Structures are given as structure tokens and as C-alpha cells.
Amino acid sequence: MTGAGITTERLRGERPRRDHAALYAQLFGSDDVAATLWPPPHGGARSPEQAHELLAQDVAHWDSEGFGPWLFFEAAGARFAGHAGLRCGTVGGAPSVEVLYAVSPDRWGRGYASEMAFAAVDRARALGLPGVVGYTLTTNHASQRVLEKAGLRFERTLDHAGLPHWFGRLSFAQIS
Ligand SMILES: CC(C)(COP(=O)(O)OP(=O)(O)OC[C@H]1O[C@@H](n2cnc3c(N)ncnc32)[C@H](O)[C@@H]1OP(=O)(O)O)[C@@H](O)C(=O)NCCC(=O)NCCS
Questions:
Q1: Domains of the chain (ranges plus CATH)?
Q2: Is 26 near ligand 1, meaning CB less than 6 Å away?
Q3: Which of 22, 102, 158, 171 could bond 131 through an S-S bridge, CB–CB 3.0 to 4.6 Å?
Q4: Distance, CA 142 to ligand 1 centroid (Å)?
């Protein structure tokens, strides 16, 4: 299945829409989330206007690529859980598709990031992409664990935005 939505064992992912602006502002306006996404000197928690721009970028990504990040909600009760999925970009000078995720702080420690990352990797494979990459601050051990559990393997330490990052990759190419 490669439609716009996605379901996992406990979560339901929706393609971002303009009326998700308040959820973007809540998630990306969180100091806890910003601490690892935009650590000093990268600006910290995003303003509602900046979060709205992030939403607009996700909407545009879906429009141009046919895939992207989802907003995830708990299947039981519909509580907001986070933002995760796939994004095209240039990492370490090479075009690639990145697995990304940010979980609402009140939902941390429940395995949700791992569940979201698995779903993103599965979708990348179903879309026929050659593989995915992931990178996270070398100090973000929980995020490294999420990427490893999703099947990515450490490739190198990468300087990204002036900070050292763990960089990993999962290739789907068949060995013949
Ligand atoms: C990092 C983040 C995504 C983790 O979300 P989560 O839903 O709590 O993660 P999970 O529950 O799926 O599991 C994380 C794994 O890391 C492990 N972990 C947690 N804290 C850890 C730590 N300090 N050191 C090592 N491993 C740790 C957990 O035990 C778990 O592994 P396990 O299943 O083998 O036990 C979440 O804290 C977050 O959204 N942070 C802000 C945004 C962010 O950093 N995103 C990633 C940027 S690349």
C-alpha cells in the first residue's frame, strides 16, 4: 500500500493538511523537541509562524514527491503522537531520502518513534526507493537506537549544520 495515509500497530498517520497548523506549532514549539532538532546555535523552539512554514514545506513535499512526513495519532483515542516519515534532501553532499521523526514529549518512551521509523522504512521500500538515510546528533542516543532498530547501519560521523552527527544508511538494492 502506498497511499497517503499509513497505519501501524498502535498509530495512524495522516498526510499533513493546512488545518494541522496548531499541531505543528505545539510539536515544533516544544523546547524538549527543539533541544535535539535545533540545538544552539540553531534557534531552538520554532515560533507558530516558523512551524506553519514547516507545515507548508511538508504539504509541498507531498505534492511534488507523492510521499513525505505524516502526522501520527494514537489509533485508540486519536491523541496526537508526533511527526515522522520520509523527506528528500541533500545529506553530506549527496541526494537522498531521509527517515525523520519527532515524538510529542508526553508520548516519549513508548516505542512510538521506533514504530514510526519502521513504517517510514516500509513505505520507502514499497515505493521502490533505493534506500534511506538517517542522521542524528552524536549525543542523541535514543534517536540512534531508533535508526538502528529500523535497520539503518552506521556509516560515518557527519558534520551537519556545524555539529557532529551519527549518519546511517539502509540500502534496499538486491545483491544478485
Ligand atoms: C528521540 C525520540 C524520537 C525518541 O522517541 P521515543 O518514542 O521516546 O523512542 P522509542 O520509545 O521508540 O525508543 C527509543 C529507543 O532508544 C532507547 N533510548 C532511550 N533513551 C536512550 C538513551 N539515553 N540512550 C540510549 N538509548 C536510549 C530506548 O530504550 C529505545 O530502545 P529499545 O526499544 O531498544 O529499548 C524523541 O525523544 C524525540 O522526538 N526527540 C525530539 C526530536 C528528535 O530528537 N528527533 C530525532 C532527530 S534525528
A1: 6-171 (3.40.630.30)
A2: no
A3: 171
A4: 3
